[in-house]
User: Fold this.
Amino acid sequence: MPAESIRIRVDPETARAYREASAEQKERARSVFALTLRAREETTEETLQFFDEVARNARARGLTPEILDDILHDRPPSPEELAGGTADEAG
Assistant:
């Protein structure tokens, strides 16, 4: 894959250090920069996929926004909120 050029703003000390770096040091810096951005992108996508899966599983098991709100506020869910998921299991 051919390389592309981009411009980024950095502080003067970082710019000076890059200008004075050897070709090998510059290549390492470019590699670290590229890996950092790609890792962040992949991590973000994987995290979003994980949260989507958790949400789907929770909804499939009967967790509603109201029940979640009760849990987060340390309140027991009302019988009406629980009626959908647990009434069949009790009988």
